């Protein structure tokens, strides 16, 4: 088969052989994520035993059901530990999703990873409920824009940070209630004690401000450390307000945990995709062979929405 | 009535008047806690609307059931936001416990606060289960010695830190499996990636080591910051292992939350007190009038076990 190699060139690769419980999926489209850029730069190696090929999500058609009861020809979305930038990928059955009614295969390819990331953290870890207040950093990004829609669909009040008036306007259109330009305002001063949950991608440099912005019993969840990995934690401030900090990644989780996340995400988020409460936003499509161009486009920082590689 | 005043002297005080849902308890004995020392030093004021009198736990007999369906003369344990160093105290009904079968009123007075503190954190927040590995700092203290017994009764493996061979031997007798003298050993080097849950009273200075000592999906719970309130948090280390940090206090919680904690503690911990799996350890009794001596004894650091004030 053809696949994208480490140098981001289309190359020959061995078609994956199936392990017990895996199906072979003929890839229709694969999502491009920031983590792929890190992997291409050699900074985010795949977990042990997982493919070297990039690509954390895709959608396609089952070409070989292996030992499972799935049917050849079934259309599926796939949460991957790697391997999506290819014509075929082996996927543990627990990491398959149905195609949400009304969505295309391409739209599904671009929504699996973000949906599982946002739901596993805000839904399963922070346990957000109707009426909660959620602060989302980087609201205009792929994770942020999905999180805004999810939180609004669940009846939460949403504050976002972003770095320009245009990005904040985009967040407002997605439903965000409170807009903070982090270049002009300190979110902790704007929203002291406000947030029941915070979804953060900045990490260390935001840690003290995030603690200040949390409400009693609030939960900070860090899913990326784009600003730096370390920060100062004020445990003394946290105690009387019973605050929690959790840091997670999706990719490193063992397969049974991923299967549980996929099942919970399909249960809680797929209906919101089918009702239109959350709409996928595909900004650009590139043929698989142009993966390098797709990465350059994402890396430019000018992109709003999801970038896809189309395969077959 | 008589009560201990801010200067730790026995003094006249107004007998508490009951608010809706409160009962008046004639105090038989009250537990002495480290937090009381802080309050006496002016560093730990009571929550708004709660008594100025010290004392976070007691046991006694209902003298006036107020608007509740309780009976006059019923023996009860009491989790208090304050007021235990007195002949009478007003207690919200949700903060009453039964006397565990086989325990005296005095033993109950010394066990309510520690049981609710340990269970609310290890049981309700960290969710420890049979087979989990739990690291307990200050294993020989009041919290630590109770936590060791609870964890062993639940089938956990237990590691402790303490500052002397004598204290570690005491922890071993209570059931601790791994003994670490923090003056001679670095617990993070001894137990890298070991703990599913850590119960910490040191705070800032232990934060980086605690993160190193946590197992994947592990949870650090900080309930005191005796070493300092701030530390460095390595979010980058936490992400791939999905670690959580929670800091809590019991006293500042609103009454409905305290009632939920008391109910869960009575459900899960009282049977372990009744079976003898957890045994209260009363080291010293002082008459109420000698509260100052009781504080000096606790402050000396030589005490192992619970100090009680006996009232009636």
Number of strand segments of chain A? 16
Identify low-pLDDT runs of chain A.
Answer: none
Overall outline of chain A: globular
Summarize the biggest pleated sheet of chain A: 7 strands, mixed
Percentage of residues in strands of chain A: 25-35%
CATH superfamily of the largest domain in chain A: Medium-chain alcohol dehydrogenases, catalytic domain
In the CATH scheme, the class of the largest domain in chain A would be Alpha Beta
CATH architecture of the largest domain in chain A: Alpha-Beta Complex
Oligomer: homodimer
CATH domain fold name of the largest domain in chain A: Quinone Oxidoreductase, Chain A, domain 1
Rg estimate of chain A, integer Å = 19 Å
- Number of continuous helical runs of chain A: 11
Give the distance, in angstroms, between the N- and C-terminal Cα atoms of chain A. Answer: 12 Å
GO molecular function, one term (chains A, B): NADPH binding
Protein name (chains A, B): NAD(P)H-quinone oxidoreductase
Keywords (chains A, B): NADP, Oxidoreductase
InterPro entries (chains A, B): ADH-like_C, ADH-like_N, ER, GroES-like_sf, NAD(P)-bd_dom_sf, Quin_OxRdtase/zeta-crystal_CS, Quinone_OxRdtase_PIG3
């Amino acid at each position: 088969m053809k696949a994208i190699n480490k140098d981001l060139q289309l190359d020959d690769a061995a078609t994956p052989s199936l392990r017990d419980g895996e199906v072979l999926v003929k890839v229709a489209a694969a999502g491009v994520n920031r983590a792929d850029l890190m992997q291409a730069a050699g900074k985010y190696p795949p977990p042990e035993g997982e493919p070297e090929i990039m690509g954390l999500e895709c959608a396609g058609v089952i070409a070989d059901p292996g030992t499972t009861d799935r049917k050849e020809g079934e259309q599926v979305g796939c949460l991957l530990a790697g391997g999506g930038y290819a014509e075929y990928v082996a996927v543990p059955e627990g990491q398959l999703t149905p195609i949400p009614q009304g969505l295309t295969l391409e739209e599904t390819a671009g929504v699996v990873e973000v949906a599982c990331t946002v739901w596993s953290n805000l839904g399963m870890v922070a346990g957000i409920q109707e009426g909660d207040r959620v602060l989302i950093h980087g609201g205009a990004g792929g994770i942020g824009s999905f999180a805004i829609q999810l939180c609004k669909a669940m009846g939460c009040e949403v504050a976002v940070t972003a770095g320009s008036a245009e990005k904040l306007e985009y967040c407002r259109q997605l439903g965000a209630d409170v807009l903070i330009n982090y270049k002009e305002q300190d979110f902790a001063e704007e929203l002291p004690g406000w947030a029941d949950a915070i979804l953060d991608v900045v990490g260390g440099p935001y840690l003290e401000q995030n603690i200040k912005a949390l409400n009693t019993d609030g939960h900070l969840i860090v899913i990326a450390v784009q600003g730096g990995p370390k920060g100062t934690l004020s445990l003394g401030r946290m105690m009387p307000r019973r605050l929690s900090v959790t840091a997670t990644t999706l990719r490193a989780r063992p397969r049974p945990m991923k299967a549980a996340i996929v099942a919970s995400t399909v249960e809680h988020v797929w209906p919101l995709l089918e009702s239109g409460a959350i709409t996928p936003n595909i900004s650009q499509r590139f043929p698989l062979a142009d993966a390098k161009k797709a990465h350059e486009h994402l890396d430019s920082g000018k992109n709003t929405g999801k970038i896809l590689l189309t395969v077959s």
